[in-house]
Amino acid sequence: MTTDKENPWFTWGMRLFTLFFLILVPVLLYTLVKNLDWREVEQSFKTYSTLTLMVGVALAFSSYMVFSIFDLIGRAYTEHHLPARQVIPVAFVCYAFNLNFTTWVGGVALRYRLYKRLGLDTATVTRVISLGIITNWVGYMALAGLVFSLRMVNLPDNWKIGITGLQLIGFLLLALAGAYLYACGYAKRRTWSWRDHEITLPSLRLALIQVWLGAINWALMASLIFWLLPKEAFYPSILGILLISCVAGVITHIPAGLGVLETVFLALLHDQLSQGSLVAALLGYRTLYFLLPLMVAVIAYLILEKRAKHIRRHHKHRVKPAPEKL
Q: Distance between CA 111 and CA 218 in Å, rounded?
């Protein structure tokens, strides 16, 4: 079998990949800065007290840490050798880029680049990414299924889907999450092959952790919006609206779901909360959950790029790669 290092096509591919990121990252950052209304961001901060903003930062940080643990689950699943102190920064950076610049840039391409520079092979990175995506969405299905099936979200009369339709979707999501857990716990065939890739079901214990952490992350995101809204806001309703808006954002493929989140929240809460408080809360949410973490992630990314080569050499001398599973 030819290794990555022995394959000249792979070597040239990695060089082009490096050039791609050297060009892409500055372009994306420039586009974001250029299109951002900094006066609105400043105004959203002035609306809140220092304590409110500090708690908001803590909620955002907690969500990012929970999401970073997704990659630690991937480490347990793949049994790769990278320590948590290297995995968590990579996950944090990729999550921030993912939220601001779509999944393909942050969640996939950037993860491949950083993990491969730290010494992981392509197959291992693919399995880490796949498990992280499943963790996020199986947690979503379990939580959204519960919220929708219990009719915690009030839909406008002119929405064609209706509250009963949303409830049926909730039951379907719960069934899908339950089917995943059942397969992980009791499926006799646990490995499938597709081309050169193998898909292996995690253990039931690992799958339960996936559902739990995925749901917690979504709940923390909703907690941040709820914290920034007036006291009369109802948390289960805010959670349900966030879950609806995120699906709309994924379908439209708009970076950071720009406009989608605001549209859904304004449509569903316009008769319960004032438009001014809603807009201020959503601006504050975008600032605390998207913009500030991205600033930290850019600095962390530059540090990771600088240290990656040194870390990779260090591990090659001290740690042997884990044996491949047959």
A: 21
The confidence band for 283, taking pLDDT boundaries of 50, 70 and 90, is confident
Which DSSP string do the residues of 29-61 spell out, in sequence order?
Answer: HHHHHHH--HHHHHHHHHTS-HHHHHHHHHHHH
Vertex 180 angle, CA 177 and 183, to 5°? 150
* pTM exceeding 0.70: yes
d(CA 318, CA 250): 42
**198: helix, coil or strand?**
strand
Dihedral sign (CA 64, 225, 208, 178): negative
Structure tokens at 164: 């009963």
Name the residue among 246, 204, 217 with its Cα closest to residue 69. 217
Distances (CA, A) of 28 to 21, 47, 105: 10, 29, 10
Q: What span, in angstroms and rounded, lies between the C-alpha atoms of 219 and 215?
A: 6
Average pLDDT over residues 190-202: 77
Q: How far apart are CA 325 and CA 313, in angstroms?
A: 24
